[in-house]
Amino acid sequence: MSSPTRKKRCAEREELELDFISSLPDCVLSSILSLLPIKDAVRTSVLSSHWRHLWKATPLRLDDTYLRPDNPDRDDGPWGHWTRQAVSSIFASHHGPIETLCLSHFNDWTFHPAMELFVESAIQRGSIRQLTLVSKSSVPFSTYYLPLSLLNCHSLHQLSLYGCHFPQPLPPSIFPNLKELRLRSVPLPNDLLRILLSECRSLETLHVFFGSIDPVINISSPRLRKLVFKLSYFNELIIKDAPNLESLMFNFGRYTEKNVKVLDAPKLQLLGFIYAEFQALQLGGTFFDRQTTPSTKVAEMPCRIKMLSSVKTLAIAKEHYLGKTIPDLLRCFPCLQNLYIMKYSGQSGRYYSDKDIWDDQCYFSFLDHLKSVTIKGFSSDQSDVEMLRYLILHGKVLKKVTLLCSIYMSQKLVENIRRQVCIEERASSDLELVFCLEMENVDHFSPWNELIKR
Question: Which region is the signal sequence (predicted)?
Answer without folding.
Answer: none
